[in-house]
Structure of L-carnitine dehydratase/bile acid-inducible protein F:
Amino acid sequence: MSRANGALQGIRVLDLSRILGGPLCGQILGDHGADVLKVEPPQGDDTRAWGPPFQDGVSSYYRGLNRNKRLQFLDLSQSEGQQAVLALMEQADVVVENFKIGTMEKWGIGWEQVRERFPRLIWCRVSGFGADGPLGAWPGYDAAIQAMTGLMSVNGEAGGDPLRVGLPVVDMVTGMNGVIGVLLALQERQRSGLGQLVDVSLYDSGISLLHPHAGNWFMSGRTPGRSGNAHPNIYPYDSFATGTTPVFLAVGNDRQFRLLCEHLGCPQLVADERFATAGQRSHHRDALKPLLEQALQASDGPALADALMAIGVPAAPVLGVDAALNHPHTLHREMVVEMEGGYRGLGAPVKLSRTPASYRHAPLAEGDSFE
């Protein structure tokens, strides 16, 4: 396996986290060259059992979040494990943890208890609600946070029930926010020589995802609702039936709408005062959608999307996960990673020209110290 030469080469990360937000943060740091040592309890991270599918008794869920890490098993509730992890903290630049608030403090190895001993240490705490406030120290789970922060209320068909987004978007964004916080703290440490606490919570991350609904509410006072696949502010920005695969049209301005209508052979829609401007099209969307679908009914969805993109109209076929992961552009962008032992996973979405991401350790690599 090639050694790291990424942007974070030389940075040592002690990953004490489990489940999703923290492990994703650690994996991203590892992809970009950090030496990541993950500490798991003797029974392992709970997500090892989150399946099927499984490979060698370990779930795909776990394997998707723990690349570019080496493993050590410690029982942090016991004195021996606590002393071992303190020794690792002494070598680390960054700690990532997502224990329930107060757990590490109970064990005597929390941030406030070690910060003076390790003044350069950057501590990334991923929690449900933060440490204080009305909900402080409560445990947090992605779906519950989606419900509580309003995300479910705007997801689903108009007139239908609120729906959870079909992937753990809050957990993942929280992990990405953790990465941002760690990078900010590393940059500031170059000036001050000091570490600091990076506090990221699922609740804050959920609230932060509410654009444009929050902005709409701040300005109008109207509670946003569900609009299915349609954008609340602009139209046609929605999925449309064709003769084959549905397409998503993302028409953001008058020029794109004109090009769309000309390509579909319905230029009269451009002259219709109901659809003359972006605001009018949004207001009269219920009238516009069936007219467009009538013009689309003889089209092949993927071919139409390619033709529209070629003339500057944003459009895409609505693909399944299998088709998306096998798409030639997915492979060209190296968004599917293959490693020894049959590992396949998602690639790093951030491309750096001189210090690209690298994939050095498949999940479950052994190691009891930093390299």
About this structure: The domain at 247-317 is CATH 3.30.1540.10 (formyl-coa transferase, domain 3). The chain has a mean pLDDT of 96. Residues 243 and 297 are 5 Å apart (CA to CA). DSSP finds 16 helices and 14 strands in the chain.
